[in-house]
Design goal:
The protein is of the alpha+beta class and 133 residues long. It has a domain of 74 residues. Helix content is 17%, strand content 37%. A seven-stranded antiparallel β-sheet has the order 1-2-6-5-4-3-7. A hairpin with a 2-residue loop joins strand 1 and strand 2. The longest helix is centred in the N-terminal third of the chain and has 8 residues.
Amino acid sequence: MSKKKETHKGVTVHSELLNAGGPHAGNCVGYLRNIKRVHLPSSNLTSWAEKLRLAETKKAKKGRVAVIEVTSGPFKENGHVALVTHVDDDGNTQSITLEEANYPKIGYWRRKAEGHNIDQIEKALNIRGYIKT
């Protein structure tokens, strides 16, 4: 599978392509609902405003859904969501691991972002909040 490492705003992001195709590989909401079996509280999550409205907390926690702002491109109006699968908020290097579809490209992806603190990581990834599931 494809792996990529990049540094952005002082945060190192490791991206790994888990599956290049499959159902909902081009839809982050469909992937979470149907592949990861995450219960999302609204049926209409096609807009950035709707995703952001559901973000009830700023605290990263395993099992929550990260609400991510897309700042350019064709999905700017839609935003993005990803499942938080791991949070390490102890020690000098902290991290958040996400599983998602259609980011950065079509497919199922795992991203692990590492930095000095969770706030720095969230800013680098454009995470604006979390949906409790």
